[in-house]
Amino acid sequence: MEIYFTDFLTLALAHFLALLSPGVDFFIILSNSSKYGRYEGVLTSVGIAFANLFYILLALFGISLIKDNQTIFTLIKLLGSIYLLYIGFLLITSKKRELFNKKTTISKKRKALVKFFSMGFLSAILNPKNSIFYFTMFSISIKSTTPVFVQSFYALWMFFAVLLWDIFVVYLVTNKKSKLFLENYSNLIEKISGVILFTIGFLIILETLI
Predict the structure, then answer these.
(1) Residues with Cβ < 8 Å from 74, sequence gap 6 or more?
(2) What is the CB neighbour count within 10 angstroms for residue 26?
(3) Nearest Cα to 13, choosing from 1, 5, 3, 24?
(4) Alpha carbons 191 and 197: distance in angstroms, whole number
(5) Pairwise CA distance, residues 201 & 103, whole Å
(6) How many beta carbons lie within 10 A of that of residue 57, not counting itself?
(7) How far is CA 168 from CA 8, 30, 206, in A?
(8) Which of 140, 132, 136 is nearest to 204 (CA)?
(9) FRET label pair with 205: which of 22, 79, 82, 180, CA 20 to 30 Å apart?
(10) What secondary structure does DSSP assign to the chain, as a single string?
(11) Coiled-coil region(s) at which residues (predicted)?
(12) Residue (of 189, 159, 187) closest to 45 by Cα position
């Protein structure tokens, strides 16, 4: 397992930094948690996590099929690295946004549990960026010699990282002091994450071409 530690660190760091950056899933968690409550926000998070698991398994299966073809695998790795550069650039150049709409207040409603799970699941499953991102992550971290149990560990790690991070976001959103922190520093977090992702993508391109 130690020989794959560097690959795992690269995958885990890039994945976590991507999670830190507010996207579609973040805003639906924010919306449901603010409007309906913590429990509903957690259910939304669970739905998002399972949609991500679908794309994780799909990407893992796809990479496993082509990893023995070195030319295709190298090409995909380079394209994946360019995608990381693209994400990093977008985050670095992102403008500060208002996360919480202070003018709108909606009363708390009790809705069917399935609905909140479905809202999270559909939000993530209908986002094509998720499939591209996970394919990128596996193309960078998996080699032709990477055993199945290590690949499975990567997949489980990313699933639980999404789930636990999204639940953590729910708790932040439903706490007044944490909401203030998110409002003040979310853009700075995006820019720092962008610099690191851009650097990772650039280093992987160098490693692949040299």
Answers:
(1) 208
(2) 21
(3) 5
(4) 10
(5) 40
(6) 14
(7) 23, 11, 35
(8) 140
(9) 22
(10) -GGGHHHHHHHHHHHHHHHHS--HHHHHHHHHHHHH-HHHHHHHHHHHHHHHHHHHHHHHHHHHHHTT-HHHHHHHHHHHHHHHHHHHHHHHTPPP---S-TT---------HHHHHHHHHHHHHT-HHHHHHHHHHHHHH--TT--HHHHHHHHHHHHHHHHHHHHHHHHHHTSHHHHHHHHHHHHHHHHHHHHHHHHHHHHHHHHHH-
(11) none
(12) 159
Structure tokens at 185: 């520093």
Q: Where are the domains of the chain?
A: 2-209
Q: How far apart are CA 11 and CA 58, in angstroms?
A: 17
Structure tokens at 54: 């679908």
Q: Over its length of 210 residues, how does the chain's per-residue pLDDT go in tens digits?
A: 566 788 888 888 888 888 877 677 887 887 778 777 788 889 999 999 999 999 899 888 887 776 667 777 678 778 777 877 887 887 788 777 666 655 444 444 445 578 889 888 988 888 777 888 888 888 878 877 788 888 889 999 999 999 999 999 888 878 777 767 767 777 777 788 788 878 877 887 887 776
